[in-house]
Amino acid sequence: MGQAKAMADGSWYDTDIDHVIISEEQIREKIDELAKQVAADHADVKDGILLVCVLKGAVMFMADFARSLGRQGPSTEMEFMAVSSYGQGTTSSGVVRILKDLDRDITDRHVLVVEDIVDSGLTLSWLMKYLESRSPASVEVVALFRKPDAVKVQVPTKYVGFDIPNEFVVGYGLDFAERYREMPYVGVLKPEVYARS
Question: Phosphoribosyltransferase domain spans which residues (predicted)?
């Protein structure tokens, strides 16, 4: 089905999705729930929380989470990092290169890494060690999605939104070849879509 026909029936991406596993409403409710948990746990933090977004996938989550957290309590500041993990195809080796580092000192700050998804845990494990080496008051992780069946390295992820199956999922920041990030829900991509790439 062509893109014009798909757009007439709905969004361009709808025809590429086999089935939806997490709806837009479920995501919104879970983000508010996570923000309440983080706000309650950090009620006594005087200098606020430094949110560190891992580009690009976590951008959607970061924006909505920061707004929700701002309504709940502690002040927040936002920072962005971009890292590249070397590996074969779609798998991570855990060997990481920093493409964009933090723009500020995090010494004695309460840092919350905002991740879209934890799958192997290899890159996140490296990132946590890197941030901890810069002497913050604390480093914790909030991840909207986690694939428990894909985990190779256990990372202390304090706040997790959804455990999802180890399938090829896209949407709400999760991409395939830089596409589908803007979808407001999370769905499983039809095999024929990634098979032809």
Answer: 26-176
Length of the chain: 197
Please give the C-alpha separations between residue 15 and each of 2, 67, 175, 177, 194, in angstroms, as whole numbers.
9, 31, 16, 17, 13
91 closest CA partner among 116, 119, 115, 117: 119
List b or e across 159-182, with b for residues whose CB sees 16 or more CB atoms inside 10 angstroms.
Answer: bbbbebeeebbbbbbbebeeebbe
Q: Just list the catalytic residues.
A: 119
Give the confidence band of 142 by pLDDT, cuts at 50, 70, 90. Answer: very high
Show the domains of the chain with their CATH numbers. 18-85+93-168 (3.40.50.2020)
